Structures are given as structure tokens and as C-alpha cells.
């Protein structure tokens, strides 16, 4: 129980400060709390489902399948898979992190999961549609043409510079 | 939407293999329980970020920003801010109309997408401190490169 309480320290502080803010009738407390509440509702709408899907993924998908397509021996196509998976990722990076960790645990190589995270940040389809319509198609096209290769190069670089010890942390959590 | 998909998938898998599906759902539930504190922390940071790095603030600060200072400011705000695409890009559209350069817009949207101070609790929990810091630093550099490339394309920067 004390361990659980420790995990929630920030939330406890947040509650205390918000309560104090409400008593003192501060606009900031009201504003921050409204944001908290509305984003909390947004998250409830899909994050639990993502974790259930990851749970099903861990049981149903064979390690060999992931290793073969996204693992150490995988070739160029693996990046394509990573980008396709990334562009259809819902939400934001906070969804990509647990998905990437689950893929890593199943045998995907570090460079592929970093490519997945990077492209999940920049290539998600709904977001890109907004970008293309408000800022311009050519803006989106150049941004993709520059940033996708950069993501892949930096992912390979990260795989090279990170020690096994750093990567161990990924599977620890999941 | 995603709950319907999850429910349908669970139903199909349940027919194929009951025991396996229940095991998967149990793993999922365990993950929800285990990860709720970090997600709660992220929601708290998002709540502060939305309040203090608001749309109005971004409009005000980037409205007349240009050059290296503008790019730096845009990159900083993009790293701190949290907003979904359907808020960020209309905002970028307004900034463009106000005459803000594509270079600055690119720095703002790219850091917004790739560098995340508010997602730090979640990222650190899954990947550890070192990977989190390295990934965010690399992303910051990438955002600058993208912004320069955009600037060259639109003829805002010259070499």
C-alpha cells in the first residue's frame, strides 16, 4: 500500500494544491482543474482499450513472427512496417511508448521500435491531414521527405550508441 | 470506437481460444493498473501545460517572431506545449495568415510532435531516463534541421 501511495505522490500534491486553490478561489486552480478533467476524460476514452489490445497482442502474436519481420535479421521492409503501424497509431506518443515496448519484448529490434516511435510522432494520418489542409500539402511533403529519413538514421544511431543495460529497462516495465 | 473494435476482436478471439483470450485480457488489466500512476502524472502535466502554454500565449509569442530567435522560441514552446493536431494546425494556419514564416511554423509543429516534456513520465517509465533524454535531444536537433529545410524550400532562408 505504501508503495502504491508513493506512485501517486504527484497526484496527491496536485489534489492538495487544487483544493487549496479552490478554497482561495484562484482562477489558475479552476483552469488547471478543468484541463485535468477534460484530458482525463479524453484518455479514458481510449487508453484502457490500448492496454487491453496490447495484452491480447502479447498472448496471441508469436514471437517468431515479430522477430522475423521486425527483428535483428529484418531488412528494409521492417521500416515500412514500422511506418505503416505508426501512421495508424491513435492518440499520441503516450500510446506509441507502450506499443513500442510490447514490440520490443516480442523481439523487434531497437532501431525498428525507435523508428516506430519517431514516425508515430510525425506521420499519424489524422494529424497529417490537418497539417496538409491548414499549412499546405507541400509543407507536409517536405517535412515527411526530410524527417522520415532522419528518424530512421537516428534510430540506427541510437541502437548503436545504447548499451544493452539501457535497453533492458524497456522490458522491465512491461 | 476503439472499445467496439476491442470488444469485437475479443469476441472473435474468445471463440477461437477462450483460455488464451482471458489470459490476454488479464495481462491488459494488469497493465492498466500498473500504468495508471504514470498516466495520471502525464495528465497533470498536460493540465498545467494547457493552462500556461495556451493557444493565446503561442499566438502572442510567435505572432511577430522571426529569424533564429523566432525558431528558438517556437522550438521551446513546441516542446512545452501539448495539443492535438486538430488544435495545433488550425493555430498554425492563423499564424501563417499573420505573416509568421514557414520556418518558425515548422520548428513549432515539429517539436510539438516529437519533443515531449509532458509525456516525460510515460516515456521514462517505459524506456528509462537515458533513452528518454537522448530521444528528445535528437528530436530537437531534427526539428531544427526540418525547420531549416522548410525555410530553404519556401525561400525564407538563403545560403
UniProtKB/TrEMBL annotation, chain A:
<keyword id="KW-1133">Transmembrane helix</keyword>
<feature type="transmembrane region" description="Helical">
    <location>
        <begin position="36"/>
        <end position="57"/>
    </location>
</feature>
<keyword id="KW-1003">Cell membrane</keyword>
<keyword id="KW-0472">Membrane</keyword>
<keyword id="KW-0812">Transmembrane</keyword>
<dbReference type="InterPro" id="IPR005524">
    <property type="entry name" value="DUF318"/>
</dbReference>
<dbReference type="GO" id="GO:0005886">
    <property type="term" value="C:plasma membrane"/>
</dbReference>
<protein>
    <submittedName>
        <fullName>Putative permease</fullName>
    </submittedName>
</protein>
<dbReference type="Pfam" id="PF03773">
    <property type="entry name" value="ArsP_1"/>
</dbReference>
<feature type="transmembrane region" description="Helical">
    <location>
        <begin position="77"/>
        <end position="101"/>
    </location>
</feature>
<feature type="transmembrane region" description="Helical">
    <location>
        <begin position="6"/>
        <end position="24"/>
    </location>
</feature>
<comment type="similarity">
    <text>Belongs to the UPF0718 family.</text>
</comment>
<feature type="transmembrane region" description="Helical">
    <location>
        <begin position="141"/>
        <end position="158"/>
    </location>
</feature>
TrEMBL record, chain B:
<feature type="transmembrane region" description="Helical">
    <location>
        <begin position="102"/>
        <end position="122"/>
    </location>
</feature>
<keyword id="KW-1133">Transmembrane helix</keyword>
<feature type="transmembrane region" description="Helical">
    <location>
        <begin position="71"/>
        <end position="96"/>
    </location>
</feature>
<feature type="transmembrane region" description="Helical">
    <location>
        <begin position="134"/>
        <end position="154"/>
    </location>
</feature>
<keyword id="KW-0812">Transmembrane</keyword>
<feature type="transmembrane region" description="Helical">
    <location>
        <begin position="40"/>
        <end position="59"/>
    </location>
</feature>
<protein>
    <submittedName>
        <fullName>Uncharacterized protein</fullName>
    </submittedName>
</protein>
<keyword id="KW-0472">Membrane</keyword>
Amino acid at each position: 500500500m505504501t508503495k502504491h501511495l508513493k506512485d501517486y505522490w504527484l497526484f496527491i500534491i496536485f489534489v492538495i494544491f487544487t483544493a487549496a486553490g479552490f478554497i482561495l478561489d484562484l482562477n489558475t486552480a479552476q483552469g488547471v482543474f478543468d484541463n485535468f478533467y477534460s484530458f482525463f476524460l479524453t484518455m479514458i476514452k481510449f487508453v484502457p482499450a490500448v492496454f487491453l489490445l496490447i495484452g491480447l497482442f502479447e498472448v496471441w502474436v508469436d514471437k517468431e513472427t515479430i522477430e522475423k519481420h521486425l527483428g535483428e535479421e529484418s531488412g528494409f521492409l521492417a521500416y515500412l512496417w514500422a511506418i505503416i503501424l505508426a501512421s495508424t497509431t491513435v492518440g499520441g506518443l503516450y500510446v506509441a511508448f507502450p506499443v513500442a515496448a510490447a514490440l520490443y519484448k516480442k523481439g523487434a529490434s531497437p532501431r525498428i521500435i525507435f523508428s516506430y516511435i519517431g514516425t508515430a510522432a510525425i506521420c499519424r494520418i489524422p494529424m497529417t491531414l490537418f497539417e496538409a489542409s491548414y499549412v499546405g500539402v507541400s509543407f507536409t511533403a517536405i517535412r515527411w521527405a526530410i524527417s522520415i529519413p532522419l528518424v530512421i538514421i537516428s534510430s540506427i544511431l541510437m541502437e548503436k550508441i545504447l548499451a544493452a543495460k539501457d535497453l533492458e529497462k524497456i522490458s522491465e516495465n512491461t | 470506437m476503439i472499445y467496439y473494435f476491442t470488444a469485437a476482436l475479443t469476441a472473435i478471439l474468445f471463440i477461437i481460444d477462450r483460455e488464451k483470450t482471458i489470459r490476454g485480457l488479464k495481462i491488459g488489466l494488469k497493465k492498466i493498473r500498473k500504468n495508471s500512476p504514470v498516466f495520471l502524472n502525464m495528465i497533470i502535466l498536460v493540465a498545467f501545460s494547457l493552462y500556461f502554454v495556451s493557444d493565446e500565449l503561442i499566438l502572442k509569442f510567435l505572432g511577430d517572431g522571426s529569424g533564429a530567435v523566432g525558431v528558438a522560441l517556437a522550438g521551446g514552446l513546441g516542446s512545452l506545449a501539448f495539443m492535438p493536431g486538430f488544435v495545433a494546425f488550425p493555430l498554425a494556419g492563423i499564424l501563417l495568415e499573420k505573416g509568421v514564416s514557414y520556418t518558425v511554423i515548422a520548428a513549432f509543429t515539429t517539436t510539438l510532435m516529437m519533443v515531449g516534456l509532458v509525456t516525460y513520465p510515460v516515456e521514462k517509465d517505459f524506456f528509462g531516463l537515458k533513452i528518454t533524454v537522448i530521444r528528445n535531444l535528437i528530436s530537437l536537433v531534427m526539428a531544427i534541421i526540418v525547420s531549416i529545410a522548410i525555410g530553404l524550400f519556401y525561400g525564407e532562408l538563403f545560403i
